[in-house]
């Protein structure tokens, strides 16, 4: 897969806002090990939140890849293959568990991104991070936001990734596109954020992280 390749934009209102509002990437020791230590997660819309996996949270990191095209910023997303054990078929950011060999959170996000979609880390500049996000499946995920230089080439890991696509950053940050959906899981009613882009249903943790990014940039409740 090839991306369009205009010159990268060094400064735009969106990139300036990201640089100003994002937090520093936390050290590995600051990744929460239980939901009580994390300010964000599936529990934000679900006061009776309980992980389906008991025990300490599993530390993980994802890359939120923001590509700076001349026509505007876009976010790279993946659709997971249907046979995976966690979040099968869902739309997500590239990422995964923090391995013992990873020296820091950024290393995990970049390694997993290279493994899943073949995005070379030399095209990525780290802008900062969001609060850890706790999922109902027992992960504490650090979303690392990276500015991606256009002109990259992707190579998809077909065992893990069914499709890679891009969504305009403005669409994802527009609260008019943020929908609150609900359903019953294991006999308990749950709510989640969803963003529908064409035939792509972005929901769950990915949509929750995007909503948290919106709130960080523009203020909660806006």
Describe the structure.
The protein has 222 residues and is an alpha+beta fold. It has a single domain (13-218), classed as Nucleoside Triphosphate Pyrophosphohydrolase (Alpha-Beta Complex), CATH 3.90.79. Helix content is 19%, strand content 34%. The chain is built from four helices and twelve strands; from the N terminus they run αβββββαββββαβββα. Strands 1, 2, 3, 4, 5, 6, 7, 8 and 9 form a nine-stranded mixed sheet that branches. A hairpin with a 4-residue loop joins strand 7 (133-134) and strand 8. It is globular.
What is the number of beta strands? Answer: 12
> What is the CA-atom radius of gyration, in angstroms?
16 Å
CA-to-CA gap between the ends? 36 Å
The count of helical stretches stands at 4
Residues in helix, %: 10-25%
CATH class: Alpha Beta
The shape is globular
Largest sheet: 9 strands, mixed
How many individual domains? 1
Q: Mean pLDDT, as a whole number? A: 89
Q: Per CATH, what is the topology?
A: Nucleoside Triphosphate Pyrophosphohydrolase
pLDDT below 50 for ≥5 consecutive residues: which ranges? 1-8
Order of helices and strands: HEEEEEHEEEEHEEEH
Output the CATH homologous superfamily.
Nucleoside Triphosphate Pyrophosphohydrolase
Write the layout of secondary structure elements.
Elements: H1 13-21, E1 40-41, E2 58-69, E3 72-80, E4 91-92, E5 95-97, H2 105-117, E6 124-129, E7 133-134, E8 139-148, E9 161-168, H3 169-173, E10 179-185, E11 188-197, E12 200-203, H4 204-218
Parallel strand pairs: 1-7, 2-8
Antiparallel strand pairs: 2-3, 2-5, 3-4, 3-9, 6-8, 7-8, 10-11, 11-12
